[in-house]
Design a protein that fits this description.
The protein is of the alpha/beta class and about 325 residues long. It has two domains: about 15-195, Rossmann fold (3-Layer(aba) Sandwich), CATH 3.40.50.10490; about 215-330, CBS-domain (Roll), CATH 3.10.580.10. The protein has helices at about 15-40, 40-55, 70-85, 95, 125-130, 145-150, 170-190, 195-200, 205-210, 215-220, 235-245, 265-270, 300-310, 325-330; strands at about 60-65, 90, 110-115, 135-140, 155, 220, 225-230, 250, 260-265, 285, 290, 310-315, 320-325.
Length: about 325
């Protein structure tokens, strides 16, 4: 579709364009405020709690469906639910009547999104739910709509003003749907006690996964961890540091407990002072060095390194040395 040049408004200083953007955001904010206010309504809150309860107790999955812009929101909602511990799948209404209704089982619950509540494409799904007693939860802004009246649980969305100047393009209404989907997913997530560790299981790759990696997953362990006893010579400590190539060595007592650290920097300062390499490393180590637990997030290890301006961090479990992690390993893994 082409737009005639006569209808294009000149940019000028762009002030009116910025005003338009701010107006859209203001209208969207009003929609979100209206949604939040809906929870003050006892019936709405009761319905929301009932939906959460049904989803928590369902043996199968949440079948999320919607058409048009609501369908796009439904896809996003499906992804958020799935990634936060609630098994969900998107069902496209156009495919439902061509065999995909078979993906709905008696153990599932259907979550239907429709702002108007009158999308004809949703008809076969509604009929299927009624025929086989599949719980149907709906999100719509029209109380007397087909979808609202057919639903077992209807969450009545606020009838918001669209940001579109022609009041045609779904804008504020889809923002409200999206926000409600997030609120539902987070409520379910908290009900399930879904932890950061659980989140990492579902997000092992990419930047998000890197932020959830535990120290134990990136640390050097076993014989790869440089360590010497307190009475070891400076020469022995230097050999151990050279072997492990981590830029330092831990100093441990007879029980394997971390009592000190000796780094490349310490060695340079010692050599500059013309110390005898047969002297005990215990005289020149940094006592009670900073350490971290193996179950801590790698991002926390990196934060400590930046804060203390160190490159090597030893890992201890109940005081005993179990590993070592270098800043380069954290950065290489994408931890930030």
């Amino acid at each position: 579709m082409s737009i005639s040049a006569s209808k294009i408004i000149p940019f000028g200083n762009g002030g009116h364009i910025v005003e338009s953007a701010c107006r859209s955001l203001s209208i969207a904010a009003s929609g979100l405020n209206a949604l939040e206010s809906r929870f003050a309504d006892r019936e709405f809150s009761a319905t929301f709690l009932r939906v959460v309860g049904v989803i928590m107790n369902v043996r199968g999955r949440v079948i999320v469906t919607g058409i048009g812009k609501s369908g796009i929101v439904a896809r996003k909602m499906t992804a958020t639910l799935t990634s936060t511990g609630t098994p969900a799948i998107f069902l496209h209404p156009a495919d439902a009547g061509h065999g995909d209704l078979g993906m709905i089982t008696p153990d599932d619950v259907v979550l239907m999104l429709s702002h108007s509540g009158e999308s004809t494409e949703l008809g076969p799904i509604i009929q299927y739910c009624k025929r086989f007693a599949i719980p149907l939860a709906a999100m719509t802004a029209r109380e007397q709509s087909t979808v609202a009246l057919a639903a077992d649980m209807c969450m009545l969305m606020p009838d918001v003003e669209e940001a579109c100047p022609n009041a045609l393009a779904p804008t504020t209404s889809t923002t409200v749907q999206m926000a409600f989907g997030d609120a539902l997913a987070i409520a379910l997530m908290e009900m399930r006690g879904f932890s950061a560790d659980d989140f990492h299981k579902f997000h092992p790759n990419g930047r998000l996964g890197a932020q959830l990696v535990k120290v134990r997953e990136l640390m050097a362990a076993g014989s790869d961890v440089p360590s010497v006893r307190e009475d070891a010579s400076l020469l022995d400590a230097t050999i151990e540091m050279t072997r492990a190539r981590l830029g330092g060595t831990a100093v441990v007592d007879r029980n394997g407990r971390l009592i000190g650290a000796f780094t490349d920097g310490d060695l340079r300062r010692t050599v500059t002072g013309k110390q005898n390499l047969t002297e005990s490393v215990g005289r020149f180590m940094t006592a009670a060095p900073l350490a971290i637990g193996p179950e801590e997030l790698a991002s926390e290890a990196l934060r400590l390194m930046h804060e203390k301006n160190i490159m090597l961090l030893f890992v201890c479990d109940n005081g005993k040395l179990v590993g070592a992690v270098h800043m380069h390993d954290l950065l290489h893994a994408g931890v930030a």
